Amino acid sequence: MDTATANPATGIPEVVLNSSTGRKAMPVIGFGTAADSNDALISAVLEAIKLGYRHFDTASVYGSEQALGEAIAEALRLGLVGSRDELFITSKLWPSDAHADLVVLALQKSIRALQLEYLDLYLIHWPISVTPGKSVVPFNEQDLMPMDFGSVWAAMEECQRLGLTKSIGVSNFSCKKLENLLSTATIPPSVNQVEMSPVWQQKKLIEFCKPNGIIVTAFSPLGASGSSWGTNHVMENETLKEIAKTRGKTVAQVCLRWVYEQGVAPIVKSYNKGRLKENLQIFDWALSEDDSNKIGQIKQHRMMLKEDLVSARGPYKSIEELWDGEL
Questions:
Q1: Burial (0-12, 13-18, 19+ Cβ within 10 Å), 200
Q2: Taking Cα atoms as reference points, which of 280, 287, 294, 300 lies closest to residue 205?
Q3: Is 53 a catalytic residue?
Q4: What's one GO BP annotation on this UniProt entry (predicted)?
Q5: What is the pTM assigned to this prediction?
Q6: Cβ 76 vs Cβ 115: under 8 Å
Q7: DSSP one-letter code for 205
Q8: CA dihedral over 309, 315, 318, 323, signed as positive or negative
């Protein structure tokens, strides 16, 4: 990232979010907390903080907000960080709460679960709304409805004005959805978090976001192998393996460096201390032009499909109709 500046305490570059309250800097690598075990998550977060991670990504649907909050409290008690202000905490608004009258309440619930006074970033998780209370995935399509972007985003802006979050953004928004949002927004989104990896490169979206001052963050940049939506297409890619071998790096490091060189902030997840450390070792070297060209030619394959969120046909002709043909 051209505008990223290294944090002198951690050595990890940070980028300033354009639409935040005050000068809010976001570390360009984050730790994902979609947890399988809360006990394991607490230990992993504490280890990550020791290694220098300061950016932690959660969501109401992950079931990890409480455990992350406990880990933050323990890190403060142990003196691993001097204050909560040294951390960058993101959470997300689930579609069942994506209604104008529920947004502030949902954020307040997340803040309580995290035992915090504010978030650094609050994202709309998906560009759809669901019947309130119907939060289990896959959704019944009869419960889906187009989001009222104007009123929901106005409520997100109110969250920032109230000081409940320092910045606001979106997740899984296409160029078309972002255009719609930007046309009425008073506070533009600071971030768009999307699936991105060498096998799903999101070139069009990145080209749209950059001139609009929107930082792209990447979930599952290593393919999320082992998760319900994951794939081994990233870590087993022969082109990436070849580059890693030539450079004396891991495939994960090649992927994360490539994401970083696109001006995107990767969100990674590991409970392994060695891999946590390796994933940070991407800032003191660069891919060659030949490496980048080879990665640019990798066959593209999206992991997370819209259909994975929905269980049955409802009042819409297709999922594409609800999403305006884009995710």
A1: buried
A2: 300
A3: no
A4: secondary metabolite biosynthetic process
A5: 0.93
A6: no
A7: H
A8: negative
Rounding to the nearest 10 degrees, give the CA dihedral for residues 204, 205, 209, 214: -160
Rounded to 5 degrees, φ, ψ at 212 are -95, 10
Give the active site residue among 53, 62, 122, 260: 62
DSSP three-state, residue 294 = helix
So what's the pLDDT on residue 256? 98
Give dist(CA 189, CA 19) in Å, integer.
7
Q: Which amino acid is at 85?
A: D
- The confidence band for 306, taking pLDDT boundaries of 50, 70 and 90, is low
DSSP string, 115-148: T-S-BSEEEESSSEEE-TT--PSSEEGGGEEE--
Distance between CA 94 and CA 130 in Å, rounded?
Answer: 9
Output phi, psi for 282, to 5 deg. Answer: -125, 5
